[in-house]
UniProtKB/TrEMBL annotation:
Its cofactor is [4Fe-4S] cluster; [2Fe-2S] cluster. This is Biotin synthase. SUPFAM superfamilies: Radical SAM enzymes. InterPro entries: Aldolase_TIM (IPR013785), BATS_dom (IPR010722), Biotin_synth/BioAB (IPR002684), Biotin_synthase (IPR024177), Elp3/MiaA/NifB-like_rSAM (IPR006638), rSAM (IPR007197), rSAM_sf (IPR058240). Catalyzes the conversion of dethiobiotin (DTB) to biotin by the insertion of a sulfur atom into dethiobiotin via a radical-based mechanism. Pathway: Cofactor biosynthesis; biotin biosynthesis; biotin from 7,8-diaminononanoate: step 2/2. Homodimer.
Amino acid sequence: MNIYDVIAETSLAGNELTDEQAMAVLDCPDDELLLLLHAAYKVRRNFYGNKVKLNMIINTKSGLCPENCGYCAQSIVSQAPIEKYSMMKKDEIVTGAARAAELNAGTYCIVASGRGPASRELDIVVDAVKEIKDKHKGMTVCACLGILKPEQAERLKEAGVDRYNHNINTSSNHHQNITTSHTYDDRVNTVEMAKASGISPCSGVIVGMKESKEDVVHMARSLKVLDADSIPVNFLHAVDGTPLQGTDELTPRYCLKVLCLFRFINPTKEIRISGGREVNLRSLQPFGLYPANSIFIGDYLTTEGQEGSQDWKMLEDMGFEVDLEPLNRETAKALT
Ligand code: SF4
């Protein structure tokens, strides 16, 4: 049994990886990468078989954000030439859900820029979600509207929101290097608030923002403590005009090692290869689905994704299937 098989056994047994094991994953020599992927796939297959969840994002409000997140093209400090618009109308959000259904996306993610939703914005989302849940039975609706107040979380839950996304983004140690307009704890508190309202928590990270490998291990462990059901792993696609412009420290092989680490530390959770998939994993994208079991289909918030048909082709070529099961917090049960 090689070291990665031992790590897979540790993960499958529900035990914590040691610091040495976690670093061995990120430091895996490139000529052992297939061994690592094979071990991570054993864990993924145990909980998710060959199913892949598809998620589609709609950016309902773009730019105009007073926060200063260094990676974000929509922030107040960004000079990136993105399209800026205020909150869409309810009907546009509902129409987006029909598009998600066409793309076989089981989860529709309603995202808005900003520190948190204004009451008019929340009203629009609440009305849209009610209509979407009525028209598309079984579709999982995720909202991502920034920092929430408890009563706002309650309203989203009542409207039918299944999941709430608020990323921790990076480690608690590195957070102040990425943004100073809100704290790491603000982010964690919103995830906890969504959970307290009975909404499934989604929280993830952005890798490639000049953090250390120890920070990456810390992020994966923090999400385990938070018990995030869904973990989007973004790989920085540094947009010109943002403070992180020109940052390009990832290789496709390192991205795969990061995905394996997240799978081992969060074995039962939905691990999603998120923003930056195409530009960072490049020709190795399909290999990412050995540790991960979820991807976005369509475009990201301010950058384009590849054509949905290419994603379907990738899944078909790999012998993977789209998972259309609706969200269920208890779904991640061992298949074997
Ligand atoms: S990540 Fe969100 S909060 Fe931060 S600047 Fe972008 S839109 Fe604003």
